[in-house]
């Protein structure tokens, strides 16, 4: 009798349980989510992120923060491995490494994208952004969206932008104050058609060179000078091998955060959401901090070296802007009238 009761109880419990599961579980929705979680548990997802700058820079710190956020948000199931200082790939190599799938994410300077998608040349135009507020508005708005979507046809998904700041000029021989002071000098540049033309207009030679080769070339005198943000000039110690710096704020340096599109499409939806959210947070964080980082490092440069620093006054700056303005017309066909108009609109708004 006891055995019979036991069997009956067992069958009734089993029946009730299966009814409960049948009515209370939405298999179509939840099963998907729980599968993704299972995948994550079985196999950790590792995303290699390569970049060329030092860690104590706006990009270096944003990349580190991004990795930490993804780790937290995914409960340690998605690991972003950050390779700074070009330790994995140089500027020349990183785009190909992304296409080949050797690395899943990179954040190159926007100047390095003009060769695959000419619209990006708009951001290299001299004095494109008069202030940091103009940069943020431009990248968060139509300019940023147009540029990121132009990469879709190259199997690249653009996730957003981090900013380093505005570029300054360094030089070993003499102060560069008027545009005539550029004549006969040679400058290291990023590989960019606009930057080459900029120095052509100023009567200088320009030498396209990888970021991590620049210090050696400045030190050996192979090039007389270069243009970069304070944070790169400081973290790569250019100020130790240059005697003059002009605070000109004449050019923009920022980064497109990129992921291989096939790889992106292969990721579970919840991992894509984690990446999107982490990028959004780092973009806001970067916008809050890049200005103060550059300011702090300018103070350190002044403290740690005898480099002569000249800040362009309004009159001097006006002359530079006028001298370099023909580049806007020259690059309008490549960058597109719409983007140039957007940039000019921001210039009027923030000047
Ligand atoms: C440079 O090559 O000067 C910069 O693009 C380096 C960087 O990524 O900030």
UniProtKB/TrEMBL annotation:
GO biological process, alphabetically ordered: transmembrane transport
What organism is the protein native to?
Answer: Fictibacillus solisalsi
Q: Which UniProt keywords apply?
A: Signal, Transport
Please report the name of this protein according to its UniProt entry: C4-dicarboxylate-binding protein DctP
Q: Does the keyword Zinc apply?
A: no
| Statement: the UniProt record of this protein carries the keyword Ribosomal protein | no
Q: Which family does it belong to?
A: Belongs to the bacterial solute-binding protein 7 family.
Q: Record's Gene Ontology CC terms?
A: outer membrane-bounded periplasmic space
Coiled-coil stretches noted in the UniProt entry, renumbered to this chain: none
